[in-house]
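Figure 6 in text form: structure in, sequence out.
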């Protein structure tokens, strides 16, 4: 009798759980496309404008791409979407494993064809911080979108051309804006601006040599940069949004410099997301700050 009661109890419990998760699943939104990072989201949203294609960004506000690990909910969103787009398998090492684990075949990698930078054998993942690279990423993303949403191919193609025009104009603004500067170095929290500095001829000097901004700064490194900042008359040092800037403020205080906030777009503010701030806007804001720090003329 006890065995029968136990079986009935567990069957009832299983049935209730089944009903609960079925109801929850029905209430959850289903997105056409799931993307892994904020820059990919920004580019994708411009490409799908006017198509009705819905896009889900896995990375929550305030989280950093370097340290983010996907949740079970993310896996569910990927499994149910028609297409999953990620940046790069070396940067987001979980992406291909997760996709394979849930049997997802509709997967696209955004950074194919980009000329990577390697520092001491380690590749720089911040490929999106250059307009030319953003064009390549947009081309890759658009190709996948048109393959999986052929009914919107014409509109996506038009949006891609418009994005190309924006990036060409942005590249020209950077080229002109950073061509006549009194300074050649910027002090940054971590080396996120290698593609930008290579293209526009300035040097980034990071407090943290690791590509992860949360890494610790040694005392000797701090002293070296304080002395260098003073001797070279550098007036500004760069922190980053949503990353602890205590070490940057310490450097600025000791060197008599001012702190500015340069945005590598590894994370994002909720209000920027809600206002649909575009990639181009973030990059133009960065250009204004770079010109100030590098003391660039007209």
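Output sequence:
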């Amino acid at each position: 009798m006890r065995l029968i009661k136990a079986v009935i109890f567990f069957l009832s419990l299983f049935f209730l759980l089944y009903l609960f998760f079925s109801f929850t699943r029905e209430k959850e939104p289903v997105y056409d496309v799931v993307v892994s990072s904020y820059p990919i989201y920004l580019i994708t949203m411009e490409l799908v404008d006017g198509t009705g294609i819905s896009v889900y960004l896995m990375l929550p506000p305030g989280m950093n791409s370097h340290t983010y690990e996907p949740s079970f909910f993310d896996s569910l969103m990927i499994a149910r979407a028609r297409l999953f787009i990620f940046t790069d398998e070396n940067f987001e090492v979980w992406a291909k494993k997760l996709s394979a684990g849930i049997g997802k075949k509709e997967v696209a990698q955004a950074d194919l064809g980009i000329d990577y930078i390697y520092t001491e054998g380690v590749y720089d993942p911040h490929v999106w911080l250059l307009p030319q690279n953003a064009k390549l990423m947009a081309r890759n993303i658009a190709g996948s979108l048109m393959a999986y949403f052929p009914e919107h191919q014409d509109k996506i193609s038009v949006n891609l051309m418009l994005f190309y025009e924006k990036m060409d104009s942005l590249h020209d603004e950077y080229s002109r804006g950073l061509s006549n500067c009194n300074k050649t170095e910027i002090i940054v929290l971590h080396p996120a601006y290698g593609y930008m500095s290579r293209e526009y001829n300035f040097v980034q000097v990071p407090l943290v040599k690791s590509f992860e901004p949360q890494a610790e700064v040694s005392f000797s490194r701090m002293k070296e940069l304080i002395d260098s900042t003073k001797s070279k008359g550098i007036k500004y040092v760069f922190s980053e949004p949503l990353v602890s800037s205590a070490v940057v403020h310490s450097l600025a205080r000791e060197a008599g410099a001012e702190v500015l906030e340069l945005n590598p777009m590894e994370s994002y503010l909720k209000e920027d997301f809600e206002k649909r701030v575009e990639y181009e806007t973030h990059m133009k804001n960065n250009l204004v700050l770079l010109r100030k720090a590098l003391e660039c003329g007209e």
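Caption detail: Residues 2-27 form the longest helix (26 residues).
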